[in-house]
Design a protein that fits this description.
By secondary structure, the protein is of the alpha/beta class. It is 26% helix and 29% strand. It folds into two domains: 4-54 and 63-172, Cytidine Deaminase, domain 2 (3-Layer(aba) Sandwich); 176-228 and 247-258 and 271-329 and 336-387, no CATH class. A hairpin with a 4-residue loop joins strand 2 and strand 3 (39-46). It is globular, with a radius of gyration of 22 Å.
């Protein structure tokens, strides 16, 4: 028995619109949420065209011109824009019938590349309960026939398994949102032996230590500690066929442990340092959970990962910005304050789920709008951009 994908009807329309554009082929990502029973697909996003790519250079009879690096780079960018609970669930390709055989080989290759690219940036490791199947969706642009298969990304020798692809209206109209604000105060020493003040590597090591604290934290949902295996929604009323957003928000408090307790011995290490990095501020985090009897542990895990991702992604964005605009060297960082980008949220039509992004203080609204169009193929109105937090250092 293969996996079942419950898919937002808008995804079907999006794929149909793409197949009507009469391009030799289109690739893209499937975005949604895994659960033990089934997976939910709430968005599909086409791979953005490369600036230098000319339509005439794409050979209709071959898929060899698909740029694997470009697809995986897009997936890494998109994964930054997904709040807790959402991930890149798979890859799709829309192509002519004569490309069907090649399409499966290409999809398999892309699925493993995308997963590797997305996961290597993460500071958390997949757990035993994590679903490792990813979807390979093949759409024929002539017959509109859909074939969905899955591959186990934990097994490099994995072969394709059949999967069900079922559309549902208003799939994510009433998902539960969990919100929390985490006060961050992280001190990261820079070792004197570290060559050229390797700021990015040191920062990642410091964030790794901090992420373990988050993993060990206690989470209060609406003021209560709840058992992991209990249902998150108590006596929920399922609203079917309602296209209006009816998100239920839960307020979450994160209690980090100050010490490991007297039962554990700790050792202190003395290291010679030439400086330090301090990360301070309030980080706004959010996770979304499906409304089909979700467990407390699913919700808490999604929120933990969002907290860790949100801070590590911002540091990555800052370093990328510095390398592009200033060059990253020791002198430019001495006794300087840098402001990490702020988090913002943007609604999705017909859904209670909001997508995320980050902006620097001097970044214009137009740049954010362009980024959403390029990465998520979504037009965003300026008034729909919700800045979630104050700028933090």
């Amino acid at each position: 028995m293969g996996r079942t994908y419950i898919v937002e009807e808008a995804v079907g329309k999006y794929l149909s619109d793409l197949s009507a554009k009469q391009k030799p082929y289109v690739t893209g990502l499937l975005i949604g949420q895994c659960s033990s029973q089934r997976d939910y697909v709430i968005r599909a996003v086409r791979t953005p065209p490369k600036e230098e790519q000319n339509e005439s250079t794409v050979t209709p009879s071959k898929l060899t011109s698909i740029d694997e690096e470009w697809v995986t780079a897009h997936a890494s960018q998109v994964s930054r824009m997904l709040p807790g609970g959402l991930l890149v669930l798979g890859v799709f390709i829309i192509a002519a019938p004569e490309l069907a055989k090649d399409s499966q080989n290409v999809l398999r290759k892309l699925i493993f590349s995308v997963e590797k690219s997305v996961m290597k940036r993460r500071l958390w490791k997949a757990g035993e309960d994590d679903i490792s199947d990813r979807a390979a969706l093949q759409v024929c642009c002539t017959t509109k026939k859909i074939v969905c298969r899955t591959y186990d990304v934990q097994d490099p020798k994995s072969s394709a398994k059949p999967a069900d692809w079922k559309y549902q209206s208003a799939l994510s109209a009433c998902w539960l949102a969990l919100d929390c604000t985490v006060n961050v105060n992280i001190h990261i020493p820079l070792l004197a032996t570290s060559p050229n003040h390797d700021l990015e590597k040191n920062t990642k090591n410091g964030l790794n230590r901090w992420s373990k604290q988050i993993e060990d934290s206690v989470f209060l949902i609406n003021g209560q500690v709840k058992d992991n295996d209990t249902e998150l929604l108590e006596g929920p009323k399922k609203l079917r066929g309602n296209t209006q957003s009816c998100a239920q928000f839960s307020d979450v408090k994160v209690l980090t442990q100050l010490s490991q307790g007297s039962s554990r011995r700790s050792t202190a290490t003395v290291q010679v340092c030439s400086g330090s990095i301090n990360l301070k501020g309030a980080v706004k985090c959010r996770a979304y959970i499906h409304n089909n009897k979700p467990k407390v542990k699913e919700a808490i895990q999604a929120l933990k990962r969002d907290i860790i991702n949100s801070l590590s992604d911002r540091c990555e964005i800052l370093f990328e910005d510095l390398i592009i605009n200033e060059g990253l060297d020791k002198k430019s960082f001495e006794r300087e304050y840098r402001v990490l980008p702020q988090r913002l949220f943007v609604p999705v039509a017909g859904s209670s789920v909001m997508l995320s992004d980050y902006k620097f203080r001097d970044e214009a609204t137009g740049e954010i709008q362009e980024h959403f169009v390029e990465m998520l193929d979504q037009a965003v109105q300026a008034e729909d951009i919700h800045i979630a937090e104050e700028a933090s250092t």
